[in-house]
Amino acid sequence: MKIKYLGHAGFYIEDGDFKALIDPFLSGNPKAKASVDEFDDINYIFVTHGHGDHLGDTVEIAKKTSASVITNFEISLYLGEQNVTTHPMHIGGRTKFDFGTVKMTTALHGSGIQTPNGIIYGGNPCGFIIERNGKKIYHAGDTGLTLDMKLLEDENIDLAILPIGGNFTMDVDDAIRAVDFIKPKKVVPIHYGTFPVIEASPEAFKNKVINAEVIILKVNGEYTYICLNLPTKRYNHID
Ligand code: NI
Ligand code: MN
After folding, report:
1. How far is CA 216 from CA 25, 87, 161, 193, 199, in A?
2. What is the Å distance from ligand 1's center to 237 Cα?
3. Distance, CA 189 to ligand 2 centroid (Å)?
4. Among the bound ligands, the one closest to the CA of 111
5. Domain for residue 238, yes or no?
6. CA 235 to ligand 1 center in whole angstroms
7. Residue 239 counted as domain residue
8. Does a structural domain hold residue 237?
9. Amino acid 99: pLDDT
10. pLDDT-based confidence at 226, cuts 50/70/90?
């Protein structure tokens, strides 16, 4: 499984036929290196909430690739009106897809969608647990520290993607507490440094986390997440 950090909260994940984006905020993102033009072959786009720095370029990419957008019911309605294919879910739900399973988790945040005609209600913000080939990735979305994260310990998360930038989300200290609640094997810090108001030190986060491996991803750098525990047979079956 190849995981590429696109900056802010955005990711590109590729594993065989599975090619997905999470929160593709590229246009207008001062730290993004990738552009919409690079993504011509995407099956799924995960959107955690309606804010512009997460919904980002979803409509344009979904339209040109025919990707299905997995997001909450309210954002699905909004995207559906723009002829974007969606798979609506809601918090607590887990669904089987052709690539694996997805569970929508709680996030403590907002989700309003800014449009030229005013703000549209975007339902509840969320995070995602994406499972494929027996490995689980948790993308927290934008969220403050919540006690709900303690429930995620039972999910046996392999890789947790957590905001650390403060102001709009958890800061470094709260993200450290989140790691303690979730107990993932590996952690990637996100949602910092894009704008001055969310400056934070991923190195400080890395130095203080003792119970998980912290991986600081460079924007557009690739991280290959190898599934070590599974027989090859399982891959063949799912691919
Ligand atoms: Ni937000
Ligand atoms: Mn955000």
Report:
1. 19, 31, 10, 13, 15
2. 37
3. 13
4. 1
5. no
6. 35
7. no
8. no
9. 97
10. low
Ligand 1 center to 208 CA (angstroms) = 25
Is the residue at 103 inside a domain? yes
53 C-alpha to ligand 2 centroid (Å): 5
Q: Which residues surround ligand 1, an ion (CB under 5 A)?
A: 51, 142
Can you say how many angstroms the Cα of residue 54 is from the centroid of all Cα atoms in its chain?
A: 9
Cα 116 to Cα 7: distance, rounded to the nearest angstrom: 26
Q: How far is the CA of 51 from the centre of ligand 2 (A)?
A: 7
CATH number of the domain within which 172 lies: 3.60.15.10
> How close is the Cα of 123 to the center of ligand 2, in Å?
15
User: Looking at residue 236, what is its pLDDT?
Assistant: 31
Number of domains in the chain: 1
pLDDT tens string 167-209? 999 999 999 999 999 999 999 999 999 999 999 999 999 999 9
The tens digit of pLDDT for each residue in 51-97 reads 999 999 999 999 999 999 999 999 999 999 999 999 999 999 999 99
User: Which ligand lies nearest the alpha carbon of 8?
Assistant: 2
Q: Which domain holds residue 7?
A: 2-232
Contact assessment for residue 227 and residue 133, using Cβ atoms and an 8 Å cutoff? yes
What's the predicted TM-score (pTM) here?
Answer: 0.94
